[in-house]
Queue: 3 jobs
Job 1
Amino acid sequence: MSSPRKLTPQEEARLAQVRKNFEERRRVTQSLEGIGTRIGVYSGKGGVGKTTVATNLAVTLATQNKDVALFDCDIDCPNVTRVLRITEGPVQNGEKLIPPARFGVKVMSMAFFQDNEDEAIVWRGPMIHNAINQFLQSTEWGNPDYMIVDLPPGTSDAPLTVMQTLNLDGFIIVTTPHELAVLDAKRSINMIKKMNLKVFGVVENLSGGVFGTGGGQALAEEMNLPFLGATEMSSDYTNSKKPAALESDSVAAEYKSISKKLTAQITENKSQ
């Protein structure tokens, strides 16, 4: 009986990479096992208030006695820590990082590892993939009911990489009523559908004023998606100490309504 053929250096390298990828995927899957529902908050373009929606939704769910984690995956422009006014970073505990909590929400963000928040982060897909994997594997998330993921905007390499890495349960699409924002949101929805992933619904942010109203609801109807609600343009968002949903009764009511419709969609999705 002949002995097995010895692998070439190139074959050895490819095999080693396959093993490494498998081990990384195993660790990521293991780190996500205790998380109830992973929700991506996504937009077709920047500047529509995606991070504002993600943070206010997270703190609203936390007020409903839910265990909530907020994962800032907008690698290029991580702003969650600024919105929540977090100054303390994660704490090292052996090989794990314990994320800081603010307003009842556990938070992990690339911003914790920037020396200067004005610094531009210019990364390609593989670097983003590695960073997300590292965050997932090293963070002690516990067993949250929900993980809200603030995704990079657009349909480029960055959001695609995050989507493929995190295996999200579904998405909230954020748009303003403006026709260009709606157009870009439609492109994002089409990308999600091409990946055979779930869209929980559409949120119309910054409704009223110069942007008009109804663009988000019209988009939801056109794409046959649930409309989770609208948040009005308001000076209540200028508060520098807390998310508006914790300070303003009107904003709190908007996000309570959105969270109620969202959880109904999640329940329906699980029953299918």
Note: Strands lie at 37-43, 68-72, 91-93, 96-98, 101-102, 105-109, 146-150, 170-175, 199-207, 227-232.
Job 2
Amino acid sequence: MRRMNTAPPEGTIVTERRGALLLIGINRPAKRNGFTPRMFRELGEAYTLLDDDPALRVGVLHAFGDHFTAGLDLPTIAPLMRSGEKAVPPGLVEPTDLGTPGYRRRTKPMVVAVKGITYTLGIELMLAADIVVAADDCRFSQLEVKRGIMATGGATLRMAERAGLGNAMLHLLTGDEFGADEALRLNFVQKVVPATTVLEEALRIAQAIAEQAPLAVVATRLNALKAVEHGPLAAMDEFIATQQRLSASEDAAEGVRSFIDKRPARFTGR
């Protein structure tokens, strides 16, 4: 993972720490940030870094240049498709967060800033995240059917879950292009802002999350995800045990102290 905005021909993923935030930048603007095997590997490494470093609390996925990503760089990815090989090495956090055997699932929050062309993998990465801020110039398309392949990064699951089967089929089966307002209507994105402020707004939201109690943030995220994936009863089964564990933490004690003292809490993640 490079930490400078100098993209080799095959692209790279740029990471930058800003306090408790990890900025993860897609960096291949000359090719509209089309993903190569190297970029997949480095993205998995960046997501794993976010989860493994206790000093980091929230990830912010963004892109260099005018576009988020045009999706897969098919000439470099097609051989992996034919062989069934994964571009992200096993043992890492899987950026599409599908629970694939051999891969870890992300636990910490991810905010995504999308802009310009956001095709195929770009939609799947944002749907796998927690909060999406879209620029008003976004152009979305899940166009795998136009290339003779199928979306396998979560679009067939999450588009239907967010927008209903009919709305998902409208875009999955035609591969049409739609804008930020339609993405907002379908619950694919949470906010639409001017393109000049999209990263700024994503960072603002991420910082607001980072200021909360980290253990409570992760527990809340995972419980909501369990409700979506396994149903509300499965999530409810965890309520008492999770609350007992959180109530015994130093952060819960700090939350009470800050309430009594009428001051902002200073959470440590313990």
Note: The longest strand covers residues 12-18.
Job 3
Amino acid sequence: MPSYSINVGNVELVSVSDGFPTRSPLMPFPDTTIEQWREFPELMKENDQIGSRYGTTAVRSGGKLIIVDTGLQAPDGILMEDMKAKGVHPEEVDLVVFTHLHPDHVGWNLTAGKPTFPKARYLIPQRDWDYWTKPEVVKDAEHIRNQVLPLKDHGVIEFMGDDYQITDELTAVSTPGHTPGHVSILIDSQGERAYILGDVAHSPAQAHYTDWCPIFDVEPDLSRKTRHQVLDMLEAQGILVAAGHFPDPGFGHFVKGESRRMWQGIQVRVTN
């Protein structure tokens, strides 16, 4: 599997993945039609299926190695193997940062009951923690009980408020709706910028169909509003985007085409 990295000023981003599921697009987007999805032949596979990706971004900034989200840890999950193949070693990770606390973003927090990243601090958006630990929510959220709450017992959690400064070059910015405390990561280094999207958008099709909300959105109306604001900003300012559920490696730009906004993915250099 190829490994990709890109530099943003003094910051290095490395795209790593935990798997590449295939499914009907109508599962996450039941209010859409196959005819609409066929407008994006580059996304379609056999039998009107689409591919997705459980993406994670490794970031080197300010002398720290940072992992943004930790995948799903399904039985066929590949995150550990993919990280090591790309020179990202769990024992060297200083910080684990969560865009939000859905199952496919917290899956490798622990392995056999111990933190997978043994020297790391785990940075959680305060508002997402507050939501997911409500008794009426956590009782139905096995992934929180198994992969998030034990981190508190290990004493490795730090909470992020609004505009939390992760390093001098990385800031967590509030992008709520997909979950109540969802954040994205703004990278600003040496006059260059990039944006780790999280789940503000799940598919390149949302570049055009920005109103589309997947079933995973906790607050669809707010998610839709946030998505319009964020994608409009990213398009207008030409900011590089790292999108975890977009086709590998997930780097690209939102650009204005002749009749619609589009996702323009880019390939980047292979790391050694």
Note: The first helix runs from residue 34 to 37.
